[in-house]
Amino acid sequence: MDGSLFMIAITAALINNVVLSQFLGICSFLGVSKQIKNSASLGGAVIFVMAISSAVANLLYDYLLAPLGLEYLETIVFILVIAALVQMVEMFLKKTSPGIYQALGIYLPLITTNCAVLGVALTNVQNEYNLAQSVTAGVATAIGYTIAIVLLAGIRERINEEDLPAPFRGAPIVLLSAALMAIAFMGFGGLSF
Amino acid sequence: MKQCMERLYNGIVKENPCIILMLGMCPTLAVTTSAINGLGMGLSTLAVLIFSNLIISIMRNIIPDQVRLPAYIVIVATLVTIVDLLLQAYVPSIYSALGIYIPLIVVNCIILGRAEAYANKVPPMPAMFDGIGMGLGFTIALVVIGAAREILGSGTVFGTTVLPEFVEPIAIFGRAPGAFLVMAILVAILNGLGITTAANKKVEGCDGCCATCAKGCSNAGKEEN
Fold first, then answer.
1. Most buried among A65, A97, A127, B11, using CB within 10 Å?
2. Predicted ipTM of the assembly
């Protein structure tokens, strides 16, 4: 079963959750998780960008870098391509579908510096995934990210109404919530196929 | 010289990037499973930071303002690739322990943050010392967090056993949730002591996260269009 698309998807979304076990995209995970609505929109934007960027990164690596023996340039190429890609997606959406742009627009620039996007591209290369596997891994990782950030936003909306001890207000209680979520997600490690 | 010493103090204590500014949280949480991993990550970032600050400061009058961020990213990514290859060649154990987090130094907001906030405005000398100060501050924070997690999680520091036999280590501190727990407790202690961190200082539209860097990126992109 190893290498099948379903297996890759479950592993990327739940077992190796990008935020809670790989610690990628922590900045936006902590920064944009105040309200469920906003974090769901960010999650949507991340799914969109990761699907495109993992496809493009895979094609670039397989058909440009690997044949030319330039594998060591992957970091430079991927980060530039992702940055350019996000800009293009933003411009494209603005022109063609203002509705989606309204919903996701402000989150797109945030994603350029989201290390999860670069992380997925690099992990895909490391695992020697082909195009279909890369895109599956990208989308599943982004779904895992969305699950985590929406759950955290839900917890934070509740916590805001509680009376906390002063030193734990703000970041510490958010980090504690994330710790408990990470413990819960460790349970997915028991999944076997 | 006085300015250089001031930059070191600023980076290590006053504006410690990790603990006070809360930047670079991804590597902070991910690689601090042990003190030695924290040290490896800290020193790699230190090396990149010194040279990126130095190069960006030297080239500050050459790089056009509109395309400065892409230019910085290319400089930083080149340096990270060099560090990546050097580690692979000379310290393979650290290289395999840190894995994907070495290329991810590129998106560590400390580096672009320092380039934007300091290095592109000052001569090479203070810029370099700013890099050393910030890098050392980051390294010290990572080693402290790594050591704390290593003691709690496996009872050792740098591989040497420090806890007596009858104390059972709490394995979860070496795993993913332990990173969040230790960081939460650390920030809570700082809050309790009344030390201002980005976490409790309300900065408009920032939240002590990479959003600030990202905004810089988006604005730069818009100017181009």
1. B11
2. 0.85
